[in-house]
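Q: Sequence in, structure out?
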Amino acid sequence: MGNLVEIEVKDRIGHIRLNRPYKLNALSRELVEEVIQSLNSLSRDEEIMVIILSGEGKAFCAGGDIAAMKNLNDAYEVAKWIDFVSDLSKKMIDIDKYVIAAVHGYAAGAGFSIALAADFIVADENAKFALSFSNIGLIPDLGLIKLLSERISPQIAKEWISSGKVISAEEAYSNGIINRVSKGSVVEEAVRFAEFIVQGPSVSNKYVKYLVNHVGELHKETAFMQENMIQAMLLQTYDHKEGVDAFFEKRTPQFAGK
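A: Exactly. Output:
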């Protein structure tokens, strides 16, 4: 079976590929552990500006591994399992670096959850996002309800979830769920999309991700204060000074991440 995750670093982009194609990259314990370890490793590498998460084979991720879940004997074991798998969504949201989900085939159930946990989604034109939970009498997990409801209206979120909706790439794009639709290689499109991140200032991008992810939790005055304090710090960075110099010298800034 080989490694369940393949890692590659190229042109300041860290690639994580789910490599369980014979199971449509369904989330087993071992696969989740390896992805979390990979995210930790790549997020610590200062040369990497962005991470692209993709899947090998016919699908991005077909959701949770049903065979593995059948072996859970009671509510306590089930709760432990769901908490464990949810750590993957939390890790994607919490790391400093931007994460792009490059989706082809199906992102179903928990696979849709982890796509939504990414900062950006680039999807193949034939990709499908499946909310199949209601078909088996369940609700979404791994943060899907919150992450989806932050992107679309509550009325549409409830309709999609309760009807077991399968969403096309076109519909997902028109509803603001994904950033790009690819007609060719979705990973290559994700690399092209990542250009503004690779060439941009990593320090300020780190704080943009943090502030946007948490702004809904903040009182207005707290949000203003956080922005102002971070801005005061960023005004002292090399990258800010480089950006100003490049503006006046009419050249492209060369940010250094400091």
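The mean pLDDT is 94.
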